[in-house]
Please model this.
Amino acid sequence: MDPFGPHSARRAEVEAAVGPAAAAARAGPRALQLEAQDLLAVALGHSSLAGPRPRNEDFCGAATPADAAELASKGIVAAVADGVGGHPSGHEASEHAVRNLLADYYATPDTLAVPHALERVLVALNRWLHDYGRRTGENDGRATTLSAIVLRGTRYFTAHVGDSRIYLVRAGAVQRLTCDHVWDHPELRHVLKRAVGLDHHVMVDYGDGQLQAGDAFALVTDGVWSAVDDDLLARIVGTEAEPDTAAAALTRAALERGASDNVTALVVRVTRMPRVSLRDVLVADIKLPLPPRLRVGDELDGLVVEAVLHESRVTLLYRVRRSNGAADPAIETLVLKTLRPDADAEASAALIHEEWLARRVTSHYFPQVVAYPGRAHLYYLMDWHAGATLAQRLAAGHRYAPAEAVRLGIRLLKGVGALHRLSIVHRDIKPENLHLGADGRLRILDLGVAASDGVDFAEINNPGTPSYMAPELFDGEPATESSDLYACGVTLYHLLTRRFPYREVEPFQHPRFGDPMPPHRFRPDIPAWLEAVLMKACARESKDRFETADEFLLALERGAARPLAPARPTPLASRAHGFGLRLLAAASLLANLVLVLLLLARRAG
Model:
């Protein structure tokens, strides 16, 4: 009997788990204006055998997106699972876990960090398996191990629960990337203490690292690693050129060495490292010329310019209408955002990335991108709303009452919270970027310097407006959700007082931060509870601020009913680095001076 008899049938199941994305990736070149060698590429191979067991409770799968933008933003996913042995639903649990991970991961927002996206999927998957098992009376029968890896860009990310394993084979050396979640007692070493579906809550181990060309990852169930030691695994994966051959050699070696369980191996080999980022992929996909500078009455791609709304050193905003006319002018009036004709390639990439982000933010607290098939130049369109920015209202002499500022703050934080749930940091919250429409809605404008998923966070020179930038940003730390919430606090402070908690900061200035100035010094009518909220939001240290937009929002909504404790002034010795030592040195110098004077006085007497 052919020992690999079940292999071909198992391959059909894995191909089904892989789905059309991988099949399309094998079908041929994509219709993109990119060279094939610019993109990440891997070779995949697997083998899954029942071994001495009557039923194979393992399952494995992988997915490679056919679309270049999705490949750059989401990456390639591979996973193995081993259903809890001895239970009739072990196979169903492992198959359900792998299939749904591969499908649901690609359904998560593109802006999420890979670990955040995996966590969303695994938490929901665990809850479903656990609840299903309880409803059917199977208890832990719907549980499974799960070890998954995502290769994206130049990094890899792992997610792991149970006692399957992920190995990295690099330059002939092997490294295990996971830890077994089993009990330490000799008689319980094969009893899982963590599995997907085992408990209502699941603890997942996450890891990441840098990719290198030629890296090979082996995802194996315990039937393989319990019989094949690390040296043999490294030798097989390192010497077998084809991943399919390597995976089959691993399962065959495990059975030859007396494996007592199902054996499954999935091998992923990096065959080409990417030379482009997500922005590069987007730029290559939309190669359009910049429009000329437009004036009122000019027409571009069937759009007539009605007004020039804003011009900066890089960008231009126009109010336009469709030239074909419409019964409802509100639908046909749009905002066109583009670049100055002399903008460079980096600015073009930034504008395309901004549109990519804006399309994924579907909250009504943001202008919505409008699809326009007739576009023949580099720009994007947003819906138009009559009204004014909060900065324009300030300039017109509007005085914001505390109750009005609180209402605006509540809406602002709901919008910022929606942004943060997509793992996007705005990085330039200020009154100029907050628009109050004639319909009464507050909208957050300008995602031009926004960043998602940590890709653009770690800039040495953080973008933004200095007076609204958190103190840590001046020390070169990357922008985070905390720095966005700080900007929200400064915005509300400025709306009420027309001042800044640490005075105005000029560009290229590196300010020193003490304690924020209490806003009641400029507006005595500000209630104490609101002042406590603003002082916490504008705290110098990020640990003293609100942790999330929801926490900030709750403090505003509760108001005087459940006020925050007033912030305590920073102790004198802690207000500046080394101040205590300088104070001690000054006191010591003064004491020595007094002693010298006393000694001189005694001698003179």
Summary: Residues 5-23+37-275 form a domain with the Phosphatase 2c; domain 1 fold (CATH 3.60.40.10). Confidence is low (pLDDT under 50) at residues 1-33. The first helix runs from residue 5 to 18. DSSP finds 17 helices and 21 strands in the chain.
